[in-house]
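Final paragraph of the annual report: two paired records, presented back to back.
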Amino acid sequence: MTDNQAKIFAPSKVSIDNKKIETYLNGGRIYPTTVELDLTQRCTRSCAGCPYAAARKSALTLQLPFLDRLFSVLGPHTPGIVFSGGESTIVPHFPETVTLAKQKGFKEIAVISNGANIHLPEIQAALLAQVTAIRISLYDWQENDSDFFINTLKKIEGLRNLIEKSGSKLEIGASMLTRNDLTHRFNSVGQQAFAAGIHWLYFHPYCVDWDKNYPVQADQTGVLAAIEKLEEAVPKNADIHVPLERYSKEPLYFEKLHGSYFLIQIGADGINYAGPESKYANDAELLNLNDYLEDDFLWHPQRINRLNQFNSSNYRFIGTKHRPPMFSDYIQKLIQLRNNNIDGEYLTKASAKFSYPTII
């Protein structure tokens, strides 16, 4: 990533809306900046190490009546939405869902996908017309170029060609999970992904021990050095994103899970969870929206009490360094600066330029 390119992620992105962060710090009610939801638990793949494999046995899918009600509550006030899964494009009503999201007021729509269905005409049409960005998770590249990986690149190339022909504003990103024993493949895989037509490449740490109480990042030794070699090999304008804060060994500290007021996660079971990293964990449930989805569900006492109970000493997913704890640590630092009376300078920290500012 060059100095003049906008960032996809940094902890300070949570405070990009100064009025919202100030309202929160003053104890006021806020709507989230982003809602991320699993449209379905179903997936076209069954990957080793997937943290949600057990949950997917239920194969739950959010239906249009539920989505219509949820979008009616959040759409006018929450500008960003992310569809994840499972594989959201596997859902028959995927095209109707992204159209509904736009109609209900969401400004930026992102899709996280494994790329399996991006060659299908009905999926392509929905993406080109309604979606801001699709982030394709690259799989099966670790030891060699598998058939699945090669086919994914071909599908990316086809979608990029349609973008150019149609004039669509859709952007294609790709993500790669990193750990020490995969660094020898970064260069080859990254260059092939750019050659296929991705607009940007995002790296993030692979996490392990999901079946234990405290999941953590896998060994990331040598990862940043390997990414630097890739950056030297690709054209200077290649858009590569490395969330350095997620690779930092600096511990996170927060007195409550501030970040989950700004980014909310809803599972395919209709339950609001503490974060994307903790979805489908019983001890991370905040509120069952199948039982309560009124206009004020965000401020339901049970939800607020649960959020306020989590802190850096008891949030057992903290070792993965996903977005909610990263945001929470950043907001805690803002609170400390504010308490020190730094003449409002605590709100100038989010000065970086961000891509997709409402997808945090």
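The closing record of the year follows.
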Amino acid sequence: MEIKLLKPGYKNNEQFYRDFLEDKIISNDDYFSNEIVTIANAPDFPIYIAEGTGEEKKQSFRQAFQVMASFYINTDRDLHLDELFWHSLLVTKKREYILENYPDVTTSFGDFKNIVVKSFDWQNYIYKCVLAVEYIEDYFNNAEEKDRYYNLVLENLDLYNYIIKYSIFRNAEFLIKILTIIDELDISGIMKAKIKDRPDLGTDERYGRRVIFELNKNYPVIMSPLLDIDSLKQEVIQALSYYYDVSEIRKNMLQLEHS
């Protein structure tokens, strides 16, 4: 499949939006550069996962992970991390899928920008899926281990978002270690919980977010991304202790070490 790449400048162009709705983009050469990329297969997958129940969102993520792993992640990294590639694919090859599954784009330019041509960063659902699949598929060969860590990502999405927000933590080693620590200590529920009685932190702060904040604040004095898992575990507990009573967690950790 050949995909013509867009020229920059389309994101805030309302005429571009109207032409998408009227199926006129592909026939207008003014929107495209001379670059064409080729991909063997480009199946549909959920591109926006902000609506529905918690379980429905997880199912959408799982579907996206599966399609990404099978058809997209084996392309060059420069391609599957390229904003122009994804936006070009969506507006030229996925128009019918988008209109059917995300009808809000037909009534709002803002929704079009948020769903179809959203900046390719940690807030973009395709970006979230690309990184998770790249990290997990590269790190593990065993299908069961892959499934385990995909599920850990889904059980800790808020924390995952904060990890990929910071460039220093945006790598497979750190993500896998953090998810392993959370799983071993059984603290996913704590990390997702809102911090109460701390008006200085805002109205929707979570323990996991503050842990990542503290690790980021201490960098490069403490090189968290390079620590072995046992040392990182101590840093995670220390960071959590600034906001939560970790005495029970420390006790459980000692029991695990001696079991």
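The two ends are 55 Å apart (CA to CA). This concludes the annual technical report; the extension proposal builds directly on these records.
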